[in-house]
Amino acid sequence: MSTLKARVSGAWVATAAVGKVRLGGVDIPFGGAPAPAYEALSWPAAPTFTDLSDGTSTYNMGVQFSLVSGKNCVGVRWRVPDTVATPIGGPHSIALWRVSDLALLASKTFVPAPGGYQDVLFDAPAACSTGLEYVASIYTNHYVFRAAGGNWPVTSPSGNVVADIGKLIADQPPNTYPSSSQNSYYYISPLIAL
User: Fold this and answer.
1) What is the span of the domain harbouring residue 169?
2) Is the pTM of this model over 0.85?
3) In the prediction, which pLDDT does 115 show?
């Protein structure tokens, strides 16, 4: 969204108005609520591979994490591979799991935009407590990868989000808990409210 400017006493100032203007045949929105404030993990190294696929295999893959201070998880950030195709078994989806009882706390299907980081927000935030482990995951058939070589933990800029291992399960339906621990980065992160 853009900020609407109005001319007041010879100066341009921001207004609190919300709406849209038509310019050159295109509607341009302005104003509105600020973007939600959240953070993701800060990966210490770039991916080794940005477009891997293992034939027809599908994956529920992600990262296990905990919080120093309980906050809401608003979604998942993913470094989308350079190529995307709809996985066998369903569309791409994100999920949030509580490890202690393998409870699915939130999920959402989405259409990935290839070649960069994409934030996908749940329809409603999910509360995450201090002292518990969670997993943020993606259902996909193409993935981004780096063999971490023991570079865990990975944290968020504030230090509140602490990830300790990659998670993976192959060739299962969407929203299947990724039960296998992997010492690899898949560039999937929870989005945690600040």
Assistant:
1) 38-193
2) no
3) 95
